[in-house]
Design brief:
Length: 310
């Protein structure tokens, strides 16, 4: 699945549902939000990707919509809220140097809805990506749960746990796990995951076992930062070592790029080992440029994209 494929081949449909926002950091303002990032990257990797979200009636919303359109987004399912502002976040770094987010509350995407047009879109989905952040209000949680119910049985329901304090709780996490067949979380979220789920051990493998045995999750991916990742599916597992690009500029959105590459591999029927290696390489490539939706160019991207079958 790549951009050079014949137009006659049906491209898999990937729907990202949830937040879209302006990320403000010392590097400036960039369009962001995990579902938007996943839609961007999966579309670059050959999927027919659509963002289901909501923006405000303000100038920030107009500019965000224009920015998304300029990046090639299908904006036909970006809803307009008549009252609430467009989402924003301020991005800094924590003590470990990882991104730290301050996310504005009560914004447009907190009130996204599912109507007739969304019904049609979701019924054609091959993969549906969602997270916990966009479920911080009852309205958005209900919309996302309805979207998951409308998707066909063969659709990959991909949950990126993506814990953003204070916008999560046990109820939201457990409810999301029960609706997902594929779950991704980072090693940095292991302690919080274990606490929320009442587990005594916060290591990735026992958490993965719990998700599969208790919640019916089919496959689990744990990202390990610079150390790579581990994937679990039934009795099978795979791991890939981390990839260190020659120049690391910005790690914001790297996790979403990883998830995007993982989705592409799952839809392509790749082995766990190949998915792990490709997702690592692709995510590392995104850190060589600023922003969560960088141009897909340069040696690091070329090396990753070379892994995609023609």
């Amino acid at each position: 699945m790549n951009e050079t494929q014949s137009n006659e081949a049906k491209r898999p449909v990937v729907v990202g549902i949830g937040e879209v926002l302006w990320d403000h950091s010392e590097r400036g303002r960039h369009a962001g939000g995990a579902p938007a990032n996943v839609v961007y990257h999966t579309s670059r990797l050959g999927c027919e990707s659509v963002l289901l979200t909501r923006i405000g009636p303000d100038q920030a919303g107009e500019e965000l919509l224009a920015d998304l359109a300029g990046k090639g987004f299908d904006t036909s399912h970006v809803q307009r809220d008549p009252d609430r502002p467009t989402g924003t976040a301020h991005v800094g770094n924590n003590a470990d140097g990882d991104p730290d987010f301050e996310i504005t509350a009560n914004v447009a995407w907190d009130y996204l809805t599912i109507g007739v047009d969304e019904n049609r879109l979701l019924q054609d989905a091959d993969a549906l990506y969602f997270g916990t952040l966009a479920q911080r209000t009852p309205a958005a949680r209900e919309a996302i749960q309805r979207a998951l119910a409308l998707a066909p049985s063969g659709c990959r329901r991909v949950l990126d746990v993506n814990l953003r304090a204070p916008w999560y709780d046990t109820e939201t996490l457990v409810g999301s796990l029960r609706l997902a067949d594929t779950v991704k979380f980072s090693s940095g979220e292991s302690d919080e995951m274990a606490q929320l789920l009442g587990l005594g051990i916060a290591e990735p493998e026992p958490i993965a076992e719990e998700l599969q045995s208790k919640y019916g999750v089919k496959r689990v991916c744990v990202t390990l930062g610079a150390e790579g990742c581990r994937l679990f599916e039934g009795d099978s597992s795979a791991e890939a070592a981390g990839v260190s690009p020659s120049e690391k500029i910005d790690t914001v959105g790297a996790g979403d790029a990883f998830t995007s590459a993982m989705i592409v591999g799952l839809l392509g029927g790749w082995s766990l080992n190949k998915i792990a290696e490709f997702a690592n390489r692709y995510a590392a490539a995104t850190t060589t440029q600023p922003g969560a939706m960088p141009p897909i160019e340069g040696a690091a991207f070329e090396a990753a994209l070379a892994m995609i079958p023609n």
